[in-house]
Batch of 3 targets.
Target 1
Amino acid sequence: MPSFHLIPSLALSAAFALVAITQPLAATDCSWTDVDTTRYLDNDCTTDETLVVPNGFTFDGRGFLISAVDPVDGHFTGAVLRNGGDVAHFTDIIISATELSNICNAAPSPDRLMGIQLEDTSGSITHSTVENINQGASGCQEGNAIDVRSSTPTDEGLPRDVLISHNVIGSYQKTGIVCDGMVSCEIRHNIVGQSATQDHLAANAVQISRGATGTVSKNHISGNQWGGPSEFVATAVLALEAGDLLDISLNNVGGNADVGIFLFATSGATVNNNRIFEKGPDAQVADVGLADLGTDNTITNNKTRGYAFPAIGESIIGLKVIPSPHDPTACFQTCP
């Protein structure tokens, strides 16, 4: 067992009330055309406040770009685009931010920076690009590209269902995809890159936390490093106090993560057939491919390469450690 301590650093937030707004209040040059319950974006555009989509609508970006900028008399706060009710769908949008001020908005403030937000909502985010959701060289614990969370279940007492698929995410600040609270997220076929501000905070590419569950499958996910003055670690995939039946399978995990896939205080999860390969070698304090600090998890048939510690956890079965390109003398191992 290594001597370092693994402490995950999550995208913190407490619950706050969402006020349903059916018209955007932003100073914006965005325009759109509504056809029934589909809102079609008309053009590339710029906004200095959040655009809110009416309840039950699908926002179709038609491949156009929405750029977030600071307002003249302040700094950009909240999400670039978010729901205004119980159901919302977002597709074919490009979301980005440009030279935002480095001003922190602490949790539980809804003013924390986000790209696309679904709050207390079922719906989907598909075939979109979310990039540059950051404040430059910032250590502020915000800047989540896709942020899905709920403090309340559906009327039937079930988690909110959200599909996140076929998206490209990169150069975020704190987290690429967050699913937190009473939500069940299906996260598949996404490309999630690295944080743009790894030198300033412990970032996570994908985070499932505090009761959230679902599936993380068939994604390409790049890990993050953190070498700052704390015991926090950065990750590619973080499951922290996640709900039962979380399935993390068939993902390609790359980059140079402190921890590739990290289960912390999570039980009943399945982690199967993931490739967790880092470029390595590197000088980070923690260097673990797969860490299970939970209970009753089923972890089978995963592969790691390039990590000083391929795995930590007694329930890991059939892990294959692949020789690293920078260590051609290493032999192939099958760990018990």
Target 2
Amino acid sequence: MKKNNKDGAGGLLFYAVFVTFISAALLVVALFFAFRENETEEKLSENNTVIRAETEDSGALFRLKLKEMAQSGYSTIQILKYFFPDELVLTDEGSFYFYDIQEKLKKNSYKNGEFRKNEDGTLDYIEDGEIKGIKGIDISKYNGTVDWEKVYSSGVRFAYIRAGIRGYGSGAIVKDDSFDSNVEKASAAGLETGTYFFSQAINEEEAREEADFVLECIKDKKITCPIAYDLEKVENFETTPRTKGLKKEQYTKNVIAFCERIREAGYTPIIYGNIKTFLRLTDIALLEDYQKWFAGYISEDSYTPYFPYEMRIWQYSESGSVPGVEGNCDLNLAFY
């Protein structure tokens, strides 16, 4: 959602790639033994006794599948996701992390339908033969001047418009230059409108300050969608983000502080983030009472979200094309 700066420093980049390579090699070895242990074939003898196939056979099957996926261009993370379907796998700072799926948390039901990619690159969600997903976009000043009439005519029905950011270096809160104009024109064109704030709060007091800033921005505005707290990990080698080293406990407290302030003002809060946000930065179990807006982008071979938990919005592309918007645009589906 945010616009990243250059990632800088070739030496650090080389180090990250090297660490990732070593980690991948070690994990492939671990994968091999896990596959041999868990995926051996079973046969029944005449007296119904289970007979395990030779472990060499399962090892051969593993190597064959691994080779096939590697030759087909699958990345290391895609391969790991395939071999660990009961866990969530992600990368961060050159390492791989595995998370058990928490059974007590509410799950999404999107496996009951299917996602269909259209010729224009947008997705539809189909359930029982009916389109259930609502198309949306999110916008900031970087998208330039938007023709909202064309956006609406293309089938988009909601828009999230950035209210502002807190600088990850200075800590200053800055309003998005195009916020007022975009909200007014999007509403006039018939779209449901929401807003989001890119946070770099380091404590609850700053998170509440950010919420108060958003509430001031939307005063006298027609905001009909939940208000989003945008929490992402800033990865920039040139500038040390002010949130660097912030613990999961504090991130989680900041999210709750923002959301509760929004809720107290009579609005519905929603948390925007990717898989790192919900697994590495925050304790998702403590955020069960808030709606989720998940950012995870589709690939050529997968049109489903890599997120088992309940979510209200899925941002599935950061490089979409929508009539009325110049250049690339974030694409979303809402499930209401």
Target 3
Amino acid sequence: MAAKIIDGKVIAAEIRTEVKADVGRLKQAGLTPCLAVVLVGKNPASRSYVGSKVRACEETGITSLKIEIAANAKEQDLLDQIDKLNRDINVHGILVQLPLPHHMDEERVTERIDPAKDVDGFHPENVGKLSIGLDGLTPCTPSGVPELISRSGLSLSGKHAVIIGRSNIVGKPLMNILMQKGEKANCTVTCCHSGTDHLANYTRQADILIAAIGVPEFVTAGMVKDGATVIDVGINRVDDSEHSRGYRLVGDVAYHDVRDVAGAITPVPGGVGPMTVAMLMKNTVKATRMISGV
């Protein structure tokens, strides 16, 4: 029996609708959430990502500020802009679109953002809060994973979740999110990575298998337990002369093979991807409430 397809587009739309309602209530209380997005340079992928975030703000009623800085600007120019946004009482969320030009230090830039406005959830203070179970702003992509699972009618509590990947953007924060107490967490978590010997021995134990390793179609059917929930965080371009664009997008999971084994699976595209922007909107509302004490 083929796996249940977890539709990230539908679930992300549900979340954006909820955010729009929350924004409406905040506006009635005299508060308009505002997200500032800083784009350095003209990287086409980054411009596309920023555009999708601005459109999501328009849809949900969040005010957006798009600030563009030249690729050859000094790092101090970017830091000064962040300082200005930190001081602006009308700005509740700040996001600096990554990657940055090579002459800018991403860690230093991230740490300059006020943790209360760090809607990406990458500031060390927010990372620390997540690791010890305190309420804060959490990274958008990993935060979307338990939402996908729970809103699809699947249980997380008590399940064995195996994550492939240990990045600071997905793997590590997701590990901390899933092991917290709560209905949308409470998992037993194993985090595997490029240094894990006999990887399939771990993945075949997973009730929930999350692939975030950045290797096209790395997870095959033989690595998946029958009936497991498979969440594919990866998105990779693979050359394909049969496509008009000359390439196709695939995940870290060999989707067509694994869906015959899994109980539920996310497609690529259309799975985890749409959730990232939806959770960013949710984080912006959360930051507004935390800053304003509402």
